[in-house]
Amino acid sequence: MRVDEISQNLDTNIDTGLSHATAEDRLRKYGYNQLEEKEGISPFVLFLGQFNDFIVWILLAAVVISGVLGEWIDALAIVSIVVINAVIGFTQEYRAEKSLEALQKMATPFSKVMRNGEMHSISSRNIVPGDVVLLEAGDYIPADGRLCSSFGLSTQESSLTGESTPIEKFTEPLPNPSLSLGDRENMVFMGTSVTSGKGTCIIVTTGMQTELGKIAGLIQEAGKEVTPLQHKLEVFGKKLVYLCLGIVAIVFLLELWRKDPLLEAFLVSVSLAVAAIPEGLPAIVTIALALGVQRMVKRHVLIRKLPSVETLGCTTVICSDKTGTLTQNEMTVKKIFANSKTVDVSGTGYAPVGDFTINGTPLSETDERFVKLVLGIGILCNNAHLKKDHSAWTVLGDPTEGAILSAAAKVGLWKEDLQKTFPFASEIPFDSNRKKMSIVTKTPHTSLLVCVKGAADVIVKDCVKIYTNGELRDLSEDDVNVIVNKNNEMAGDALRVLGIAFKPIDPEAINPAPGIVEKDLIFAGLLALIDPPRPEVKDAVNTCHKAGITTVMITGDHKNTARAIGEELGFLGNEVKVIDGMELDTIPDEILEKLVSQVAIYARVSAEHKLRIVKAWKKQGAIVAMTGDGVNDAPAVKEANIGISMGITGTDVTKEASDMVITDDNFASIVAAVKEGRGIYDNIKKSIHYLLSCNTGEILTMLFASICNLPLPLFPIQILWINIATDGLPALALGVDTIDPDIMKKSARRSTENIIDKSLGALIIFQGFLIAVSTLFAYLYIFYDTRNENPGHLYSWFLHELIPCFSGARLFGDLERARTVAFSVMVVSQLFQSFNCRNANRSLFEIGVFTNTKLLLAAGISLAMQVAIIYIPYTRHIFKVVPLGLQDWIIVFGFSSLIFVVMEIIKWYKRKGV
């Protein structure tokens, strides 16, 4: 079909697009432009999955055995524990699933469409049949469409056709209606991307009706993404299970040797196995990662791939673009070099308000004519749109091009008016290798006009003539020297300089090749734009240096401009260099690998240079974060350990290749993301530390009691309850703890570092030992207290009570009360331990007791649960406990606080360096 037939068929207009009202009606009719998602696991199946565990099966077997032996209370109690544990596990996993779903929905792509005759950027899911979509290099195609215009447009369709080379696109009708997808050269398809050129298309099908929608089931089979940390924990968990089962087996044999009933020995061993294995840890890690990622959104960071959260904490090098990332991305034309004179332009931002002067004097008529020539070419060679929304002026498109539109409007030149006289004919889009772009327009005469803008030092090499003082003459060597010196002068003032050139051509002689169109040009002038540095970036760069992170600026700007900005922001330190792309081309890869750590700024670089820089840093063992926005940046972004795309100026292809998107294009947000990444990892480590130290305390308590031939201080049902009361909530609260304010004063951790190193492993065992000692001492103290009127002589107690235990002597004190106290000490000491785990070196009082209210709430709930089962008559019977008096609670808190007091003393000694 012809384009006009399709336009008529879909009741749309290729120039003005759909009206907003029509688009709304069609959205209701056709639905959202998205693929139907594969249905997730139902909550019921997720709940049943909690019982698919070897330890749970053993517990259920214990229930059957208890029932057969008539121990119905034990049987019911164990069933209740299993169900409660399943509910807690289900809640954690369900919350983790929902957090991940919310995370996936954040990365919504946008498309540029014509609505009511104006360009709008809308969510791609709101596109409907009949929408006219504008396509540029780097865009993902949002739905299936028929091309209306194509200027050097090529697309990458390998996701549909398997063909790896780009397909050149045209607008003419194709005679064969049965062509394969790869041969439909006038169509573009959802899920493919634009590799070069630009064009427009009319959307013909959306969502599940697209070619991609027809095979949607094939792309929904990807499994869940497992992060390196989760994989490490899985491996570690298996080792932990074997170790715990070995200890549990020892306890079981000791209990049999003491001639305890087989069922009791079995239940104690199974209960210990349940307590020893932190089965809630994977869900806690997932929740901590997902909630941390959602927290990053508030800091303008969108994480696309969960493993990158861990890598962020290891980042040692950040390679950043300059424009918009280190600067404010609010370009303003400040100077114009035209007719051999430098014109100053006043005004800031995009508002078209300002004056043009030369040395403080208004422009003459001649000078104004030359300024209009330079700006006129600048707005014809331009894809941006200057719009007024309410009282604010905004730019849709590239900020540099928007600044040119604003400057031109200050002298009464408007793009829409000029394009009526000089309508668009064709375009050679900008790319980072050529460092320029060209647009060919029609003119009121028979000739065409070529308008070119780009890097000043590149443009001047393409020029053979100059228009100055009202005449067209050959460009002399002196002219070139003047232009180059003026470019260097303005670049040294941290201005971004663009060269402007043009030439008329005969319509029959036009050759679309850049090498022909962009040669033998007429030099018109220079535009110097300022993009002020972001005020927060200097502090962010300083923070990086304190954190042991190297900062590198990579820009396409002139070397002098890059140096001026770099010095102002603190990139340039002692013995670091500034080099440009030409110098980089002369350096072999093996030399660059040794030199890369000495270079802080790269200017005039191409996409290939960025890729080489990333590879050179990685060869040095660095963990590299690389920013990018253009389609040509995608290889370097993908090669980096952390690929970062720009949310405002970034192309869809670069975003797809990246691990994270900075939604405000701000370098400070990258540094904030690194801090959050370190904090998330640190908090997960706190949760692991807490769970393992508490579980170690439970195992050692039972092991020491068995070895000392003591009556077991804890019943199996009590051990299971401790697992519920103390494992879940405090561990989760530690996973979302406030980030250590000193975390960016430490060096980055190694990516190969084990989460449980030797020092942490030793600390876990030591703290577990303290929990066990506190519990056993409280347990034995109650025995001694019930048999002596004057307690407190520990030496006598040690001689007459503890030592006989090894020879088989039994204690005949108040066993129920002693066990209740021991049970409570085990719970409360673990709650004290949760506060120890907040920081390995700093005191809780220095951190602030109330800086993690979630942990306070979690500890309060756990303590309330423990008190409740002691004083509620029914639960008291189930858990075999007796009510405790005030003196008992003083003993409980006294012994429980031992671990907290000891650790605070150790932290004090560490801080003093003793």
From TrEMBL:
GO terms for molecular function: ATP binding; ATP hydrolysis activity; metal ion binding; P-type calcium transporter activity; P-type sodium:potassium-exchanging transporter activity. It is found in: Cell membrane. The keyword Cell membrane applies. GO terms for biological process: intracellular potassium ion homeostasis; intracellular sodium ion homeostasis; potassium ion import across plasma membrane; proton transmembrane transport; sodium ion export across plasma membrane. It catalyses: Ca(2+)(in) + ATP + H2O = Ca(2+)(out) + ADP + phosphate + H(+). It comes from the Bacteria. Keywords: ATP-binding, Cell membrane, Magnesium, Membrane, Metal-binding, Nucleotide-binding, Translocase, Transmembrane, Transmembrane helix. GO terms for cellular component: plasma membrane. It is a multi-pass membrane protein. The chain crosses the membrane at residues 44-66, 240-258, 270-293, 760-782, 855-874, 886-906. Residues 1-71 form the Cation-transporting P-type ATPase N-terminal domain. InterPro entries: ATPase_P-typ_cation-transptr_C, ATPase_P-typ_cation-transptr_N, ATPase_P-typ_cyto_dom_N, ATPase_P-typ_P_site, ATPase_P-typ_TM_dom_sf, ATPase_P-typ_transduc_dom_A_sf, ATPase_P-type_domA, Cation_transp_ATPase_P-type. Signal peptide: none annotated. Belongs to the cation transport ATPase (P-type) (TC 3.A.3) family. Type IIA subfamily. This is ATPase. It comes from Candidatus Brocadia sapporoensis.
